[in-house]
Automatic annotation (TrEMBL):
Organism, as annotated: Spirodela intermedia (Intermediate duckweed)
Name of the featured protein: Uncharacterized protein
Superkingdom of the source species: Eukaryota
Biological process according to GO: DNA repair; maintenance of rDNA; negative regulation of double-strand break repair via homologous recombination; regulation of sister chromatid segregation
A GO CC annotation given for this chain: nuclear speck
A Pfam family annotated for this UniProt entry: RMI2
Length: 155
């Protein structure tokens, strides 16, 4: 994962427009940052911006057990679309996630053609106790779009 690429603040519905991008990161000689091509995170582009991680907020509307003894998949709905969240083992053990919670999730975006986008979550926070969380989030995404993602008009 290339942490020099920003985690884009997005609405769930915007992820359907993200396109897979060919690998553009130069190979590293550092043992700490080297990884095999099988474990390297793929990059995507949206609004002409290269990214690997998405920052989303919304309501957990469904939970799915992956297998016996496994849990950790939820469907997130923010009113613009749906995203499947796949929680890391740390997040699965850290909190009691439940349908109906309003959460913030940040993680690796995994494009899936013809299917609901997937985010492999590495950070999730329950924001349910905060009364104005949804309205503020919408303003944050709009501000990020206007400041960073929208093309500037030419002079």
């Amino acid at each position: 994962m290339d942490y020099s690429l920003a985690a884009l603040k997005l609405f769930c519905g915007q992820l359907k427009d993200a396109a897979e991008s060919p690998a553009t990161t130069p190979p590293s000689t550092s043992a700490a940052s080297s990884c095999s091509s099988a474990t390297a995170a793929a990059s995507s582009t949206l609004f002409g911006i290269l990214f690997q991680r998405a920052w989303l907020q919304g309501v957990l509307v469904a939970a799915a057990d992956v297998g016996i003894g496994e849990r950790g998949r939820f469907v997130l709905d923010d009113g613009t679309g749906l995203v499947v969240l796949s929680l890391s083992k740390e997040n699965q053990q850290h909190d009691d996630w439940a349908v109906g919670m309003y959460v913030m999730a940040v993680g690796q975006f995994v494009p899936r053609a013809g299917d609901i986008p997937l985010v492999k979550v590495h950070k999730m926070v329950n924001l349910s106790p905060h009364p104005d969380r949804e309205a503020i989030w919408h303003l944050e995404v709009i501000e990020a779009y206007k400041l960073f993602y929208q093309s500037l008009p030419e002079d």
